[in-house]
Request: fold
Amino acid sequence: MSSLKIRPGIIVLFIALLAFSPVKVKAQSMTDVSRQLICQCGCTLVLSNCTHHECGSREIITNLLNEKLNQGQSEAAIIQFFVTQYGEQVLSAPPKKGFNLAAWVTPFAALLFGVGVVYVTLKRWVRREKQNHSSVVIEEDERYTRQLEKELKEFNERSFR
Amino acid sequence: MADIGYIALCLALTASVYSAIAYTVGARRRNWPLVTSAKNSLLAVSGLISISIAILAYALVTHNFQLEYVASYSSRDMPLAYLLSALWAGNDGSLLFWAWLLSIFAAIVILQKRNIGQELVPYASSVIAVTLAFFLVLLLFVSTPFHKLSFTPVDGTGLNPLLENPGMILHPPALLVGYVGFTIPFAFAIAALLTKRLGDEWLIMIRRWALLAWLCLGVGLIIGAWWAYVELGWGGYWAWDPVENAGLLPWLVSTAFLHSIMMQRRRGMLKAWNMVLVILTFSLTIFGTFLTRSGVLSSVHTFSESTLGPFFLTFIGVTLFGSLGLLYYRSADLRDEAEMESFISRESTFLLNNLLLIGSTFAIFLGTVFPVISEMVRGVKITVGPPFFNQVNGPIFLALILLAGICTLTGWRRVSIRNLTRHFLWPLLAGLILGIVIFILGVREWYALIGFPICGFVLTTILYEWSRGVKVRHQIRAENYFKAFWCLITTNRPRYGGYIVHIAILLMTIGIVGSSLYDVEQEVTLKPGEMMTIKNYTLTYENLDIYETENRAVVTTTLSVNNHGELVGKLVPEKYFHRSYKQPVTEVAIRTTLREDLYVILLGWDEDNTATFKVLVNPLVSWIWIGGGVFLLGGLIACWPER
Reply:
């Protein structure tokens, strides 16, 4: 009974805590966009990770990016601008469309296929165990029946003495 | 001297070819003198390659710059440790180091005294000899470290300054021991297939080899991540670079192997699958070596481009398809003896574990080679970087960690619902409470809200399992709790070493999730005396100084650091120009605590001493390195020979 009384209290407390808990708001920033781009100086790093100040392309892309963010352009428009300038290789990940979709979908399709294989394998193993188990029961039943018949026969033959 | 090194390699090639043939013929015809002769010649190969590598090491230490390799990777001002590490700094030297390691492992295999599986040794040694012969061919005809220059330079170029780090002494050897070590399990697997001895024998013989190789590869990867973090100066530790991925791929497959061999040992299951995993692991180690040396994919870690690519591709093709063909030929003899009473059992969790590990391996492999596929199919160059790998692998890795917890408390064969509820109640509650607490504290990112509770759940399952064991020992043997705990671990090292490794993975996961989701960065340009604030830190830029050493021009800056208003120290990020390299090298300054790292990079400066810094606060990174230490401890416990 006491636990029933406590439970609503815990729920109210939990909801109250949720209401007053701080919520982290992710700011749209230079970093968020630059993480989607690759520096073109040959360092193969994501733009936000490139620290080669002397690298010309880092400076150019960063300045352009800053300018476009200040102009209030959307993330998609900025990214499209750089793709037009440098080609798809400027993106830190292939876009989820067309042929590139294969890279995104295939691993999960393969995993799903794998889940199917695992399920079938497990089912086969469990069925084999059941079959073996039931054959043991049949064998044991037959043995028991034979034994019983033998004993009954002996009993009938010898009758009560 | 260099000629002796080269001649030694020529003799080693001849001896290894002879050994491979003599072992196979001798074993098939049961001609034991021939087998002994093959054994002696493989030991001779080991001795000859040792002579060869000793000569190269001597040339490096004595600055014999007439050798092109020595002139390219060492210089007079290098300390002894880095001179020796130059052995694996270049393509040719690292290939020689690979061959030397394999020859030493071969010697250990043939000299090891064993009660079982002696019949497998000749065939396994033959496979090792063939692999050695392949590397010796490369060393003699494609990539020789004993090539002489027509003149003798006064000094050498020296190591790339980025390589002058303790990581250089530890990371490549650890990684290479891991790579090379997997040749032994592969060799015994092929020997088992050839001789039709497909029981547990070969698994017993290779378990420790596989475990050691896996441990070294794992430690090598962690040291590599640490090295990248402190030296490359971009603020991260894993960039999903093709060469990093190449090291991770065999590690993931061998992790699956180490789990699935338990199924074969205990239940006679997955015999063919274990063979597939060994073959895949070996092929992926060769693939990694190919990626590092072929120049087919761009990476900061690759050696300079070479003509080795086609040789490696041919070798991978022959070994992969040859062994899979042999496996298919023997498939009828590899039927499982398996049967299970229920879908819910440890066997099922192991199968899922294998599925997820192989799924992740496939995803990483596909992402790594996809730029090449895209260029071939569409003629368009693309980049597959961290966002792809994180998005695809994140859920798989979290599912794997969750499975580690479920597996710990799930018994073999079948588990009743009652037992399941009883065992999982506390771990589930622990995970749930942790989730609620972090939500209340303001965590809103899905990965953190799922990842941290999963870690809490898995940790509790391990502690629960330990506490059960300790309690039983305490009751039955009247041991005190400390002794019971110690005996629990020492009497079943593989099992409890494995649990310690799981704890290490949890610690690393905490570090990775924390540092990936909650890192904060800022780029600022400051004049001396100016300050900037990032999170709870205030950094004041004090001064810039330029000085020269024998081979470097160094630009150094000093920043005082206040945390919550209290002075906690100074950081000195630098950049320097090495006399032999055009590119400036960044030396980051890091202030490490268990809670977070303050990471400062000097990006650039002006004549008026204005300097531009990139400042990052990376939470929980230390836990990755602590996890690395725990991983090593757990691995060593699991490897340690039983009394």
The longest helix of chain B spans residues 201-232. Chain B touches chain A through 62 residues (CB under 8 Å).
